[in-house]
Amino acid sequence: MAASKTQVLNKLKASARYKKAPPARKKLLRQKAVDGWNRLQPKNYTAEALGGTYQYPRALLEGTPELLALFKRAFVKGWPDEKLKAEIENTGWYRNNSTRWREVEETRLKNPGEFNKSVSEARYRVATMASQLGATLDEGELDRLSRDAVYGGWEEGDMRRYVSAEIDVSSTGGLFGETGQAEIKLRQMANENGVEYNDQWFRSQAVNAVKFNSVGDVELQMREDSANKYSQWGDGIRKGTTTVAKAAGSYLRSVERTYDMEDGSASVFDPHVKKALTNRDEQGNPVTKPLWAFEEDLRRDPKWLTTKNGSETMSNVAGGLLQEWGFLNDG
């Protein structure tokens, strides 16, 4: 009958060379004796055999090379369960995967039916959230996110963040769902605050808004940009007690009256309005432009002469001059 590992080690320890060896040498001799004994043992290192020996899912070992190699060492060296557990917790697989991930993985391997049901339910949740946010997912993306949702145990907030990350902001088409609504709202806010950004900025910020279910941070950025640009109203803009559109109210109405425009159609981005809102005195300090001076600037623009207001005014002026010069009379 072949000697056991314990018998081999006891024989080594009783030898003269072992007794005379220093501690480091003794450790090396013990390791060599164990390795020699292992080479004589039957080689049953399959994932099925190792998983059965240590009560671990066979498929998990087959799908995780790092664990399979560890279980081989444990089998060869005869590690007790405590030693194996400690070594497993020191692996990259264990460190890089959460407790839930490991639990789900074991469910997938031991009970595929239950796992597939969870994925199917997650797929419905992901598809619903994608439709709500306006994200277009292909089958591969839908499968990936569904499995990630199961492994990650996603709540609604997690689902919102991960699904919104799939929205294509580089597309030339419009955004849809909540993301499209957020983009519209952000553009309205930008108009009210007299600040301009490119399309890519609006798209990206709309995605961030739905990701965290709030436009608050974007609104604060807009206010700060607006306050810096229109410094005479800076404090009110930062506090949210006013907007550039409110501050420009009188200018906007004057533009509409002077240029025969419909009520509410003038914009804070009109060149005359922008100039008035950023008016400076001779020392370069921000100062409010008087409305009468603003209206004079409007009438100096050649555009004014093409309006009904301008043509009637000029006609009256011309008639008055002709009458004054004696070319016209009241009769």
Shape: elongated
If helices are DSSP runs of H or I spanning 4 or more residues, what is the number of helices? Answer: 21
Q: How confident overall, as mean pLDDT? A: 82
User: What's the alpha carbon Rg, rounded to whole Å?
Assistant: 39 Å
Characterize the biggest β-sheet. Answer: none
The counted number of beta strands is: 0
Distance between the termini: 144 Å
What structural class do you assign from the helix and strand content?
Answer: mainly alpha
The helical percent reads: 55-70%
How many domains is the backbone divided into? 4
Taking pLDDT < 50 over at least 5 consecutive residues as the criterion, the unreliable ranges are 317-328
Order of helices and strands: HHHHHHHHHHHHHHHHHHHHH
Strand content: under 5%
Q: Could you name the key traits of this structure?
A:
single chain; about 325 residues; 4 domains
Describe this structure as you would to a colleague.
Helices cover about 70% and strands about 0% of the residues. It contains 21 helices and no strands. The chain is elongated and about 120 Å long.
Indicate the topology.
Layout: H1 5-14, H2 16-20, H3 23-39, H4 47-54, H5 58-63, H6 65-77, H7 81-88, H8 92-96, H9 99-110, H10 112-133, H11 139-152, H12 156-164, H13 177-193, H14 199-211, H15 216-229, H16 234-239, H17 244-247, H18 249-258, H19 271-277, H20 291-300, H21 308-324
Helix pairs in contact: 1-3, 4-6, 6-7, 9-10, 10-11, 10-12, 12-14, 13-14, 13-15, 18-20
